């Protein structure tokens, strides 16, 4: 079958599969993108997020597709869960696409759900703003507070990733970074090379 005959969920699944396998087949990705753009408004929220994540993971910035995803995602962003919000922000920032309306909407949708964010979702969301040299202070403050309230449950990886994500905003996140430093000292035996590098 030609990709144009595939259902939109099939296209999202193919994109997700090749990204999980780290297969950067540019003709295939171009074909997926071309086939996905027309029916993009039929995608469910998770398929939008997964498709953006797939292209970002493979460092394949297909701007027409991502613009379509952004336009389709904006109206229902409040319905996205924390992971989809974080993944969408991460995807656009990874590809260095500073889509202000989308990021503003993600920030607004994230605020009421901040206490539902896992440490990984927090790290990915904060990193997205950092990577684009943006500072949404209300969002960063809210996610910092959410981290502080659950830091005792953080794994070594979560401690390292959260430290790394918030470090560009050190002045505004001093209480969190101090708490992360203290918790990291206690968990240091569990740190691997990547966690040590991120924390440093």
TrEMBL record:
Signal peptide: none annotated. InterPro entries: FAST_kinase (IPR050870), RESC6_dom (IPR058917). One of its GO terms (cellular component) is mitochondrial matrix. GO terms for biological process: chloroplast rRNA processing; mitochondrial RNA processing; regulation of mitochondrial mRNA stability. Residues 5-189 form the RNA-editing substrate-binding complex 6 protein domain. It comes from the Eukaryota. GO terms for molecular function: RNA binding. This is RNA-editing substrate-binding complex 6 protein domain-containing protein. It comes from Alexandrium monilatum.
